[in-house]
Amino acid sequence: MLKKFILKNEYKLFFTFLKISALTLGGGYAMVPIIEREIIKKNIIDKEEFIILFSKAQSSPGPIAVNTAFMIGMKLGGLLLGLYYVLGVFIPPFFAILIVSSFFKRYSNLEFVQYFLQGIRIGISVILLNFLNSLVKKFKILELIFLALGFILIFFFNIHSIYTLILITFLYLIFILRKKDVF
């Protein structure tokens, strides 16, 4: 069965996941925009389909990059291909953690290591802000208002996120139904 996938050049996407996983610092959310760019650039999945698969990956338990690779594999070729792509995401950090953990304790107090870690934080922040910007561009102004209202209720008024979600959903539904003249 795996030969069938390899004959269809699915191994190239496996190595794309492997490369992204090996060269990206910052975890899954830092990897997702790069995965998105590579998948769309290679015309494997269009942007709308990727957003749907990413939404499914977010709602599934587990690391987001692993879930995204799995969802893409499932969409393209089923369970085996999904698991194959998960391996591509999983292998590099597994070995990197093994190697880094053996040296980290010894060298973590060195000044250049501290600077390196600070630089990584800045780079990851830029990647995440860029990804957030691309997601926000999809929102309509009304959705951004409700998103901002939810943030304000949670962050400034310390209202529990479940209550905020229920309230914002209720208000959004009322607004939409009034707009459609149901009320």
Description:
Helix content is 82%, strand content 0%. By secondary structure, the protein is mostly helical. The chain folds into 2 domains: 2-138, no CATH class; 139-183, no CATH class. Helix 2 (10-23) runs parallel beside helix 6 and helix 3 packs parallel to helix 5. The longest helix has 29 residues, at 79-107. It is globular.
- Low-pLDDT segments, ≥5 res: none
Coarse morphology: globular
Mean pLDDT: 83
The count of helical stretches stands at 9
Count of β-strands: 0
Query: Hey, roughly how much beta strand do the residues contain?
Result: under 5%
Radius of gyration: 20 Å
Helix content: over 70%
First-residue to last-residue Cα separation: 56 Å
Oligomer: single chain
Largest sheet, strands/sense/barrel: none
Tell me the structural class.
Answer: mainly alpha
Return the string of H and E elements.
HHHHHHHHH
Number of domains in the coordinates? Answer: 2
Short précis:
The chain has 183 residues and is mostly helical. Helices cover 82% and strands 0% of the residues. It starts with a helix and ends with a helix.
Please name the defining characteristics of this protein.
single chain, 183 residues, mainly alpha, 2 domains, 82% helix
Please specify the SSE layout and strand pairing.
Layout (H helix, E strand, L loop, with lengths): L1 H6 L2 H14 L4 H14 L5 H13 L4 H14 L1 H29 L3 H26 L4 H15 L5 H19 L4
Helix pairs in contact: 2-3, 2-6, 3-5, 3-7, 4-5, 5-6, 8-9
